[in-house]
Design goal:
By secondary structure, this protein is an alpha+beta fold. The chain folds into 2 domains: 2-109, no CATH class; 115-164, LysM domain (Membrane-bound Lytic Murein Transglycosylase D, Chain A), CATH 3.10.350.10. Helix content is 38%, strand content 24%. The chain contains 5 helices and 6 strands. It has helices at residues 17-27, 31-54, 82-93, 125-133, 139-145, and strands at 2-5, 60-67, 72-81, 100-109, 115-118, 161-164. The strands form 2 sheets. Strands 1-4-3-2 form a 4-stranded mixed β-sheet. It has a two-stranded antiparallel sheet with strand order 5-6. β2 and β3 form a beta hairpin. The chain is globular and about 55 Å long. The relative contact order is 0.18.
Length: 167
């Protein structure tokens, strides 16, 4: 649990993050803008929650909140296992406009935590596997650990954060 950083300009485009940023800038001095920001924050949180559901991920009492002023998504609830928890956190963070995820998820069946890796230009799963495991042929473990968010081992992008499961 805690705050995990992500690349704010990389990821799924689920909501108008520029609109949220503009409303957040105005909200400090304008009451109408504060109401608009609250509406946009709720729409962003709803979009992230819907995205999690499209990935067939769930948790008991799952809730997502978004703060456009800080670009922080907060996720809470109880995941069945560590893998599901980590995938839900990645769903929240790999969204354009989210700079950090405040992970408040509990786990019903705790296990070893994965490491995280932020993709850079020129990366592929074999290269990441070599760096993380010392063996480029273990890339299927990274691919499997990031399904269903990854549809193909060849479709990763700079700024994306991936789960690197323990060996």
């Amino acid at each position: 649990m805690g705050l995990l950083s992500f690349v704010k300009e990389a990821g799924e485009k689920l909501f108008g993050h520029k609109d949220v940023e503009a409303a957040a800038a105005k909200a400090a001095s304008d009451g109408d803008a504060q109401a608009k920001l609250a509406e946009l924050n709720q729409a962003a949180a709803d979009a992230i929650l819907k995205y999690i559901a499209t990935q067939n991920l769930s948790a008991d009492s799952l809730a997502v909140a978004y703060d456009g002023a800080t670009q922080v998504a907060t996720v809470s609830g109880t995941a069945a296992d560590q893998q599901t928890k980590e995938k839900i956190v990645l769903c929240c963070g790999n969204v354009t406009g989210v700079a950090s995820v405040d992970d408040q998820l509990a786990v019903a069946a705790p296990a070893d935590e994965s490491r995280y890796y932020t993709v850079v230009s020129g990366d592929n799963l074999s290269k990441i596997s070599r760096a993380m495991y010392g063996d480029p042929n273990k890339y299927p473990a990274i691919f499997e650990a990031n399904k269903p968010m990854l549809k193909s081992p060849d479709l990763i992008y700079p700024g994306q954060v991936l789960r690197i499961p323990p060996q």
